[in-house]
Every structure is written in structure tokens, then in C-alpha cells.
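Table S7 (text form). Paired inputs.
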Amino acid sequence: MELLQIPFLQNCLSYELIEEGYSNEEKWCIDNTYLLRISPDKDIAQLEQQEKLINSAHAKDKHIPFVHDVGIHDGKAYMILDYIIGENGNVALLNASPADQYKIGQQVGKTFKNLHSIPAPNDHPSWEQLWTSRVQKLTPRFEKIANENERYLTVLPFIESQLHLLKDRPCRAQHYDFHPGNILIHENQFTGLIDLQKITYADPVNEFYKMEYFNVSVSREYSCGVLDGYHDNQTILDSFWELHRLYVAIHIVSAEVWGHEGGIKQQGKFQKYTQFTLDQFEDFHILIPKWYKV
């Protein structure tokens, strides 16, 4: 097997292709110990940067895999991480009791709190500038969509009224693609956070912008557990909900633009998620989404 010509893997005995997941990366389980990811569209410098950040996160929380090696194989960059046993949350949560779903969410929330304890370098770009620019680029494209859906007309004005919240927001290490498919569960325990290829630095609150789209629809109990665990089971401050609501609104814009321009096959599903999100916040007239039960 030519994969075993990679120096780090030369003494390994077994390999199995992993076919689940949505990325275009090729993934292999090696000796039930290592995960090999081959990335056709990344260069070695990108993976080396990710390696450094992922291993810093692993030092904070063992639910985050350790990166053992990065390199080039057959002209493509690769990364070798710990292989973590478990079933992805989209499946495992459905087979767990509500109490276990909440418990798993608590465990996940604590891992994210540990991840978010890693600060961005001092020269990292201003979060306010990055996201104000992002909104400005998306606005004219979303306006065309909103003009065809009267309910969407409230989204951009709401965002504009709340952008001041981005001022002086910190940047911390962030998974940046948080949904149940990127957590692993074994015997009703959270075993690992996976698919870290988007790891970056961002406002910690931004981590949860996909809650209403992809997490709550799988399990409200789990989703409540995530936020409760993240906040050490203390009352969640209004300042968190204000930012969460803003990031949710920005995600609606981003998701709808993507659905209309690039993800046509997903457009109907995304519209359902958008409607659900707007319902949860009563078109952004309430602060705390209805799915979160205090």
C-alpha cells in the first residue's frame, strides 16, 4: 500500500478508507490508532499552521486530537492525527436519552471553553474589521434574495443596528464548523472533536452561530447542554445572547447567499432552517431563542 510509504506510517499494518463526511479530503484509519487526512487543495504551510494550533488545543483538552505529522505524499499535503473512537453526533444523539443528550452537550461545551482559552497572536486582524467587511460584501447579494421574501427584509436592518457589538471583541482559537457531525460519541460519552481543518481565530461567541441551523434540529437537550456546560452552569448573560443573535443573523445572510449561488440543491433545506431561526427569535424581536429552556 503506497500510503504506508509515508515515513511516519512505515511500521503500520492496517488501513481503512473512511467514506463518511462532506469534505473533499481523503481520510484513512491506520491501525485504529491514526487518522490520515490527504488534502488536495491545501499546501504544507497551511497544514503546519493548523498543526501548531491544533496541538496547542490538544494540550488544553484531550478531546481534541494530537497531530503527529504533516507532509507531502504523491504531490498532496497530508496530516496524521489521533484516531478517535466514536459515532458522529448526528447518529449517536438520536439513540441517546434526553438526559444523556444533555450530559454529552455539557461535555462538549467544556471542551469548547478550553479551546477558546487560546488567544490569537497580537498581530491578528481586528475581528470588527473582518466581519464588518464580510457583511458589506454579502449585503448586495442578500438584498436580491430578501426582495423576493418579505420576511427576510428585517434581517439586514437588524444586523446594521447591532454591528457596534463587534467593537473590541477578542479573537480566540475556534473550531469554526461546529455541528453534531463533528463530534464523536461512544457509550453515551463525548470522545472527541473532529474535522478541525477550518480551525482559526475568531470571537468565541461566534463558535455557536450554527446552533439554530444544525444543532437544535438534532437535539434541543444537547444544544442546551452545550451552552450550559460552556458557561459552567451559571446564568448566561444578556451580552452573550446579544452577540449570538447577531451572529445568527449574519449566518442567515451567508447561508442564503450560498444556497442561492452555490448550493442550489441545499436551497430548500436552508430556507427551512432560516424560517426556524427567525421563528426562534421572533424575527429578532426577542433576545433568547425559544429553544433554550432556562
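Next pair, protein 2 of 2.
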Amino acid sequence: MPGSPRSPASARCAGADVYTCGPWCQGPALGQALNILDAAALQAAGHNSADYLHWIAEARKLAFADREAFYGDPNHVDVPIAGLLDPVYGAARRAQVDPARAWPEMPPAGTPPGAAPRGTAPGAGAAWREGPPCDLPRDTSYICVVDRWGNTVSATPSDVSNDTPVVPGTGLCPSSRGSQSWTTPGHPSRLAPGKRPRLTPNPAMAVAPGRFVLPFGTPGGDVQTQAMLQTLLNVLLFGMDPQDAVEHPRIATYSFPDSFEPHAYHPGRLCIEARIARATGEALAARGHQVTWWPERIWRAGAVCAIHADLGTGILTAGADPRRPGYALGW
């Protein structure tokens, strides 16, 4: 049945199980990126070094290539989710990263176990559009809660209302999430009766049994899983508390078709927040990234919020991203 409950998608990183929503949204792309990346190598590279950020960007491109080729409403599309999240498949995709050179565009999709070869992802033929990325609607919000008993919620309530008519006499707006469907033949999220679009909202939760629970998420369209990945690694690999983790500067690639109509595509583009060292950006440009500099703490880089609930001490530590209005509250 449409909307029927399904098990969350999951991947493992640094002793934690990271749970996301399924392939009717972009959630599993977070797990795929975690499987592509080598945690020890990232730690050795150094936080936000050129090597580190190059791997982050290239892992995102590979995960997004698979997103375009395979993700869609599982009530209508046979998504090989187990194969996509297989750590062995992640390692195979890792081997497609050149440490010295960026993919100039979105890479070809992979062939996860249980899937037929796809080659070029269906969305890769989207028009190359100049100018800034899609002007994101700002209706999306994120909330996470951990109560005194340890019950945990991670949610990204979102529906765009600034570009839809109000139904007379009701005050209600019909959803415009259909703008995240596709008309491209062969695309797994191609528009069809009763078929959900592949959505961008994707709350997540990291669980280390007996140690901690970490709900986290953000608004931000296609940047959501990118900002979430960098924040999660800040916590798991570099020991940051949630507030420090969400405030650190970030990057975002746009080398894939945007989820929103008209599905803008900016091959090679890598946006970098200005607090990252200029020399680091120059080193990334030398590897072939089409670097664009963002100002400090720009709202386009996401607004991640998170709570770290220590299961041993019972202490809760929260972080609210200053890039958009947000608060961390406890009582």
C-alpha cells in the first residue's frame, strides 16, 4: 500500500549504526557516502584539509549518481537498497575515486548487487545551467527531541507552501512536492499515478548501543545529506560536541541534477564556505573542482541540529546551527 511502513535504511560508521529513511527520499545516500569513505584515512588526512574535502565531495558525487539511477518510490520501483548499502559495494565505489583528480561531472552509476547495469544515470542528461543553484524554498524545518526516558525523535517536517495556491475557504495549500518528480524516460522517480516523488527531506539517527543516541538533520534540499555527513563525521571521527560540529565550515557539491524542477545541473561545481582556508580551496581547484566561494555560515550550507544523548551518564548535549534560526532547549 502507498505509504506503508518500511524498515529504515542503515549503514555503520565508527561503531555507530546510522539510520535514515528509505529510497523514496534521498536518505540512503548518506549511508552510501559513509560506506564509500574510509574513516581512518579521513582522520589521517586531517579535518577540512584538501585531501579530506576532496574525498567528501567525490563520495557525494558517487552516491548521488546512484540516487539518480536507482532511488524512487519502492511501491512502484524495485530499488536494490540492500546492494546499494552493502559495505563491499561501497568499497568498490571507493576505488573509483582518484585522490588527485575530481570527477568533472556526475560519475556513472554503479552496479550494486541485485541490480541490472545502468551506466550513465538517467538524470545526467539534464541541461547545464549557469548561475547560482536553485533558489531553495525555506519552508523546510527540522526538529529532534530526546525525553527523560530516552525516547528519541528525528523529523524533517516540510511542505512547500510559498509557490502553491490556497484552496478557497480552507486556508490549505496543496503540496507542490510533485516538483521533485521527473519526466525523463527511464528515471526511477518518473511521474506516475499514485507514485511519490523522491523527496529531499531525510531525518537521521546514529545509535551506538550502550553509548549514545544522536538524532540529527537539516533543511537544505540536495545539500541536506551533504551537511549531515560532514556534521556526523565531526562528531564520530573528531570528537566534537554537537554545537561545535554544526558550526564548523562546510562544502557542497552541485555536480548532479537538482531534485527540484527544472533539475538544474552544475557539473564539477564545489561551493566552499569562506572560513575554510583559501589555500585549501586553491588545492581543490588544482584537482579539477570548479570552486565557488560562499560567505561564512551561509544558509545554503544547511542548518543542522543534533542532540547527543549519552546512554551511560544520561547527559544530553545539543547543537543548533547558526546558519538559520534554530534553538537548543532543555528542561
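The chain has a mean pLDDT of 92.
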